[in-house]
Amino acid sequence: MTHFDNNISVSTDMDELIYPAQTLADKLSLPFTPLNKSQIQLIITMQQIEIRAPKMGNAIFVDFVAGKNAHRRQFGGGRGQALAKAMGLKKGATPTIIDATAGFARDAFVLANLGCQITLLERNPLLAILIEDALQRAACDPDISDVIKRMTVINCDAIKYLKNLSQQPDVIYLDPMYPIRDKSALVKKDMQLLHQLVGTDSDSDQLLHVARKCAKKRVVVKRPKIASYIGEQQPSASIESKNTRYDIYL
Questions:
Q1: What domain count does the chain have?
Q2: What is the pLDDT of residues 58-105, one digit of tens each?
Q3: Is 0.85 surpassed by the pTM of this model?
Q4: Is the domain of 113 the same as that of 165?
């Protein structure tokens, strides 16, 4: 379980949601407090579970039904996009996948939409809760309910999970936290919050090492296009898109 900053709490904006909010706070071993704009808070609303944080502007939540995920599902390029090619998706080949660094689950949703059975590992409990909530909401949408059935999220340490696998996946996907950029090129609000909650992935080298022992067919690592290889481990091949590189370890 991730160690939380003392300034994180759980709250709600509706009196009728106080009980589920208190239950969630107990589950996460976090305090339940009134709404407080000066804190990072996990908020239960009538629509979704979301995170509100100082200076972050709009609340941040995961949504598979609308917004960026829905747009990417419709116009992302199908199996012809770089992510799908790197994962080995082709006619007659739909691999089982473990996404060991789920984050906001955007790539996982794309892969599930392309037919892959995918297990999402996320060690930060707040992010895991956001994904779980989004999956529950999306499961009620007839247009994507079949896609959602192919996604399972687990709040755990990926290295420990992979070391104790009973069944190997075809592919393990890693998208470790990119280095924080300077102020001249600030990342988007949601990614700033991700940095704030998760910090840097200091164990990426070890995770890649373990993943390469566990995957049946390949490990795929998402990197900024000009970034160095994780742990200086040379991949078998790489596939590039506009700003991103997918390093493939066969």
A1: 2
A2: 889 999 998 777 666 666 567 788 999 999 998 888 899 999 999 899
A3: yes
A4: yes
